[in-house]
Inverse folding.
């Protein structure tokens, strides 16, 4: 079950989100463009942010749609009662071409509270662009 869309984007605002300096990113202008409106993220950074938001919203369909088919899980399990606390992008780099496809990596820290305990997920993720669509491949 997908949670309702928020007014403020959980990702904290992508670089191209329509927002005033110091203001919060509006979901519909940020990750909502990709999750709800079907626009394709222009790069791995925007895909990473929208996937974080999809985890917050427990949107399994979007997450699976943006996972490279060869490594896509059959189903996802979300932590009951998880409260996502924020996303911090540490690095974003294009890594060139692999088998004719653009590739990139995004390093991030996602903070979440589960069962009263705060956790940090620090990961460097690999992405590939296939047929114009960026896809999550794996953690490096």
């Amino acid at each position: 079950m997908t949670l309702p869309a928020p007014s403020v984007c959980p990702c904290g605002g992508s670089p191209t989100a329509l927002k005033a300096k110091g203001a919060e990113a509006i979901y519909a202008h940020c990750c909502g463009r990709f999750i709800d409106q079907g626009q394709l993220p222009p790069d791995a950074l925007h895909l990473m942010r929208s996937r974080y938001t999809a985890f917050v919203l427990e949107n399994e369909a979007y997450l699976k749609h943006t996972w490279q088919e060869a490594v896509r899980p059959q189903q996802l399990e979300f932590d009951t009662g998880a409260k996502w606390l924020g996303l911090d992008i540490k690095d974003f780099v294009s890594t060139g071409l692999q088998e004719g496809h653009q590739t990139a990596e995004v390093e991030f820290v996602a903070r979440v509270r589960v069962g009263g305990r705060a956790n940090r997920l620090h990961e460097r993720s690999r992405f590939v662009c296939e047929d114009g669509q960026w896809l999550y491949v794996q953690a490096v």
